[in-house]
Amino acid sequence: MNVFSQLVSDIGSLLEVYWLAYLKDMGNTLILATVATVIGFIIGLACGILNTIPYSKSDSPVKKFFLKLIRAIVRIYVEVFRGTPMVLQAVFIFYGLPYFTGGEMQFRGTSGLWLAAIIIVSINTGAYMAESVRGGIISIDPGQTEGAKSIGMNHFQTMTSVILPQAIRNIMPQIGNNFIINVKDTSVMFIIGFTEFFARHRFITGLNNMYFPSATIEMVGYLIVTLTASIILRWLEKRMDGKSSYELVQNDNITMTAGTYSHPNRGTPFDERSGEFGAAEEERERIRMALKNRNGSTRGER
């Protein structure tokens, strides 16, 4: 019990002095993770679309060559950045640029660190998102693509109006998962000197050697952020799903003229029992009853 009391006391003393620094660097982590996830999604979306452009034997050799070349480039990019650790990618990008340019090009100052961190995390995220987007696109029923083409849509219109809205909804869990991973994986940016939440922990423990109390603060902080992000992302998924029950559109002229629509009060112009022709139907029924009564009375008199 004394150990836990000491832990709470140590955490309190750390927060008393460094709470503003912890909060600021957690903000840096959130900004970096959010921006990198958005940019990575855009990169993955572009790669996923380019990787699924169809071609046939009847297409020109030039078109087939360029499409195959694009797919090869995308595949190399995905395999390289998915198959290597982000910390090494950070080293290659941040230190490799001045190495190959003789020091003429390098990331300088705070803005340079931010730019380098965003580029590193975005490119890494884009490699994972490229495969997620490709999987989301090919998961859509091919019949929808055929139906879009049958009404005159080209590939671009089919992708933007039919396929992508459904594919993006299908991969929303992966997008959220990548964001949560980025919140945690930005901790490797200390390797280039970028100050984020984990870098603050390293700095503080270097001053007072309170490793475990500071690590406890870090664990709780990361957990709060990731749980909040999960709740928000699930809410977004439900919003994208729409309502659980749907009503038939009441002003669809195509459906009405096709005779498959039944207005709650009028029916359709082709429905003999609809309210629109109710008066005529009642008149016909009255005439039939009158003829029936007259014929019946005539036979009775005979």
Automatic annotation (TrEMBL):
Membrane topology reported for the UniProt record: Multi-pass membrane protein
Keywords on record: Amino-acid transport, Cell membrane, Membrane, Transmembrane, Transmembrane helix, Transport
Transmembrane segments: 30-55, 76-100, 112-130, 179-199, 219-236
Basic and acidic residues bias locations: 269-279
Region (Disordered): 259-279
Subcellular location: Cell membrane
Keyword Zinc-finger: no
Domain of life: Bacteria
GO cellular component: a single term: ATP-binding cassette (ABC) transporter complex
ABC transmembrane type-1 domain boundaries: 26-233
An individual GO BP term: amino acid transport
GO function terms (MF aspect): transmembrane transporter activity
Family annotation (InterPro entries): AA_ABC_transptr_permease_3TM (IPR010065), ArtM/GltK/GlnP/TcyL/YhdX-like (IPR043429), MetI-like (IPR000515), MetI-like_sf (IPR035906)
Keyword Cell cycle included in the entry's annotation: no
PANTHER family registered for this protein in UniProt: GLUTAMINE TRANSPORT SYSTEM PERMEASE PROTEIN GLNP (PTHR30614:SF20), MEMBRANE COMPONENT OF AMINO ACID ABC TRANSPORTER (PTHR30614)
Entry similarity comment: Belongs to the binding-protein-dependent transport system permease family. HisMQ subfamily.
Identification of the protein by name: Amino acid ABC transporter permease
Organism: Candidatus Scatomorpha merdipullorum
